[in-house]
Amino acid sequence: GLLRDAKDEDNLQARYELAEAYEYEKYGIPYNEQDALKLYLETAHKGHPAAQYRLAELYLEGKIVGSKDKK
Predict the structure, then answer these.
(1) Most buried of the four, 12, 15, 40, 70, by CB within 10 Å?
(2) Phi, psi of 30 (to 5 degrees)
(3) What are the CA-CA distances from residue 40 to residues 28, 31, 71 (Å)?
(4) Cα angle vertex 10, ends 68, 40, to 5°?
(5) How far apart are CA 9 and CA 62, in angstroms?
(6) What rounded mean pLDDT belongs to the chain?
(7) What is the rounded average pLDDT of the residues 49-66?
(8) What is the distance between the alpha carbons of residues 68 and 51, in angstroms, rounded to a whole number?
(9) Pairwise CA distance, residues 1 & 14, whole Å
(10) Is the pLDDT of residue 68 over 80?
(11) How far apart are CA 1 and CA 29, in angstroms?
């Protein structure tokens, strides 16, 4: 299943899907913004295009503050 597959740090798609599950409460997984963001960041850093895109969306929506934006 998804959770088992996502334990493999090299399975970027499973980790991305788990991030989505945390963000959108899919598959009975409760909402957890911090875990979703952590997984999006990890998978984006490893080159997953959809995770990179989602991070850009979150940044534009103001849900992520860049280090230069912090006060």
Answers:
(1) 40
(2) -70, 150
(3) 19, 14, 24
(4) 30
(5) 28
(6) 90
(7) 91
(8) 21
(9) 9
(10) no
(11) 13
Which tokens belong to 22? 């945390």
Q: CB within 8 A of 44, min separation 6: which ones?
A: 51, 52, 54, 55
pLDDT score for 20:
96
Question: How many angstroms separate the CA atoms of 11 and 61, rounded?
Answer: 27
3-state secondary structure of 66: coil
Read off the pLDDT of residues 11-44 as tens digits, 9 standing for 90 and up: 999 999 999 999 999 999 999 999 999 999 999 9
CA end-to-end span of the chain: 42
Q: Which position has the token pair 């998804």?
A: 2
CA distance 1 to 36: 18
Rama region for 62: left / alpha / beta (φ>0; ψ in -120 to 50; rest): left
Q: Which residues contact 55 (CB under 8 A, 6 or more apart)?
A: 40, 41, 44, 64
